[in-house]
Amino acid sequence: PQSDSARSKMLTGIGGFVLGLIFLALGLLVYLKNKKGRPAPQPAGLLS
């Protein structure tokens, strides 16, 4: 049916958008972390 196709297309678009936002945020975090002179101490639980 048309509704299933439209919903699938919408979910695919939303999924791609969310993935893009995640990668953008990760890239920004890495960029900002590398731009600083000394690495900031971070809790070990963040990366586990």
Compressed to H and E, one letter per element, the order equals H
Oligomer: single chain
Largest sheet: none
Report the β-strand fraction as a percent range.
under 5%
Q: State Rg.
A: 18 Å
**Which structural class should the secondary elements be placed in?**
mainly alpha
Shape label: elongated
What is the number of beta strands? 0
Question: Terminal Cα separation, in Å?
Answer: 43 Å
Query: Count the helices. How many?
Result: 1
**Uncertain spans:** none
Calculate the mean pLDDT score and round it.
84
Percent of residues in helical segments?
A: over 70%
Protein name: MHC class II antigen
Keywords: Membrane, Transmembrane, Transmembrane helix
Transmembrane segments: 12-32
Task: Give keywords.
48 residues; mainly alpha; 71% helix
Describe what you observe in this structure:
The chain has about 50 residues and is an all-alpha fold. The chain contains one helix and no strands. It has one helix at about 1-35. The longest helix is centred in the middle third of the chain and has 34 residues, at about 1-35. The radius of gyration is 18 Å and the shape is elongated.
Outline of this structure?
This is MHC class II antigen. It contains one helix and no strands.
Question: How do the strands and helices of this protein lay out in sequence?
Answer:
Layout: H1 2-35
Organism: Sphenodon punctatus (Tuatara)
Transmembrane segments: 12-32
Keywords: Membrane, Transmembrane, Transmembrane helix
